[in-house]
Specification:
Order of helices and strands: EHHEHHEEEHEEEHEEEEHEHE
Distance between the termini: 10 Å
Radius of gyration: 17 Å
Largest sheet: 8 strands, mixed
Low-confidence stretches: 202-207
Length: 260
């Protein structure tokens, strides 16, 4: 496990206004950049699509299942993600961070992780350059494409890089035990995960919180703590990384973790 490496997912609901087509949340992006620059850690960032890629994937009925989707839709989804990525990269540079954009298609082959390419991200990050990649429409084979969600990409990266900690920054305070009372589940492990009613957890084309929980449990099974925090309160991202008490949901590394 790399004791200095942190993997952070910036949800599309944080870096964009999901209800407003093609609208970045500049304030949230700037606040996160301002917080991250204070970290003395090696960081890799994955970001979601929000009102960019997600909007177009819905419009063109594109999913995580490989298929020969509409060619215009494939191009449009990809280009919108590149545009959002450039927005985030530009903000990072304004805050004197050193981002390095990585196309997700270079990290996978037929939806399987490319180990050597992914290991390169860790080498780059240790120079305090921040690799930044994202969910996207990627070619699978024979002209078929698939939506590769940022959450699934997180698991691919974590499984190979073995970061010390994984952070999901979302637009809520964590996983709700009860939506009516607003009570948050502070900690999840292999015992109480089975008792959560995942079918009631909000989902969308790329899986929403349901997908995040399932991917988080996969990472926990590899021996990593995963923390879901509110990215609209960026101090919580930093507190989670630096082991301070933070409001959110901790998916604790499983006791009988699988080690590659």
């Amino acid at each position: 496990m790399h004791t200095d490496l942190v993997l952070v997912k910036l949800g599309g609901s944080v870096v964009t206004f999901k209800e407003k087509r093609l609208t970045p949340n500049y304030q949230a992006i700037n606040n996160i950049c301002n917080s991250i620059r204070k970290l003395d850690k090696s960081v890799i960032i994955v970001h979601g699509g929000g009102s960019f890629g997600h909007y177009w994937s819905v419009k063109y009925d594109m999913h995580t299942r490989p298929k020969k989707y509409d060619a215009k839709g494939i191009s449009t989804v990809h280009q919108s993600m590149v545009t959002l990525n450039e927005t985030i990269i530009s903000a990072m540079r304004r805050y004197n961070l050193l981002p390095y954009s990585i196309m997700p298609s270079s990290l996978t082959f037929k939806l399987k992780p490319c180990s050597e390419r992914i290991l390169d991200l860790g080498i780059i990050a240790r120079r305090r350059i921040i690799p930044v990649t994202f969910g996207d429409a990627v070619h699978v084979e024979r002209g078929m494409f698939s939506i590769l969600s940022g959450d699934v990409l997180m698991t691919m990266l974590a499984g190979i890089l073995k970061p010390v900690k994984v952070i999901f920054a979302v637009n809520v305070d964590g996983v709700y035990q009860n939506m009516n009372t607003g009570k948050i589940v502070s900690e999840i492990d292999d015992t109480n995960f089975k008792s959560l009613d995942i079918s009631r957890v909000k989902s969308d084309i790329t899986g929403g919180m349901r997908r995040k929980l399932n991917e988080a449990m996969k990472m926990a099974s590899l021996g990593m703590d995963v923390i879901i925090v509110n990215g609209l309160v960026p101090r919580r991202i930093i507190d989670a990384i630096t082991n301070k008490q933070v409001d959110g949901t901790l998916i604790r590394a499983l006791r009988e973790a699988k080690h590659a």
